[in-house]
Amino acid sequence: IVLTNEAHPRLIYTRDIKKENKKQNKYVFGPYPNVKACRDIVEILNKAYPFRKCNKIPKKKCLYAHLGQCLAPCENQIASEEYTEYIKSAVKFLNGSSSEIVERINHLMVNASKSLEFEQAIEYRNTLLAIEEITKRQTMELSDNISRDIFGYYYKDGTLCIQVLHMRVGKIIERSK
User: 28 pairs with which residues across the strands?
Assistant: First the structure.
């Protein structure tokens, strides 16, 4: 997951991280062994925070701006403080702290239901459930918040079995054989 180093950063996922690209990006998170979880995280963050979606800033509002999913820096003068707060919240979430984004989405859900936009409120509820699924507590967790890959193996009668536990920010997120 990449947060680009632009005036109005974009949040994207990619498999192509080269040394020259790393210099151009503000933050790089990963690698994520589970691609679906990576895509879900980017989708959740883009729902919660209206980051810019266009590769290049267009001369007029794009579809995302008309749908309210973008702050539209192409037409609006956006305070850099507001955008910086969104970036800080997204970085906190990507570093393992989900409380701020859960609070924001919960607030959006309540506002949508108060204004009788029940379909939107259901979408926010589903987003909260997805966040819960991605960040759910584990029975095995380390408090040092270090990302690591743990390899275990067993060899018997000419057969080798290797198990890899992928730990990110102190939590096991996936295992591979």
Answer: 2
* Tokens matching residue 92: 């906190």
Q: What is the DSSP string of 71-110?
A: --TTTS---HHHHHHHHHHHHHHHTT--HHHHHHHHHHHH
Dist CA 163 CA 150 (whole Å): 8
Q: Is the dihedral of CA 9, 69, 86, 31 positive or negative?
A: negative
The span from the CA of 117 to the CA of 90, in Å, is 26
pLDDT tens readout for residues 117-166: 999 899 889 888 877 777 765 456 677 777 888 889 988 898 888 988 88
3-state SS, 28-50, equals ECCCCCCHHHHHHHHHHHHHHCC
What is the pTM (predicted TM-score) of this model? 0.61
User: Above 60 in pLDDT, residue 46?
Assistant: yes
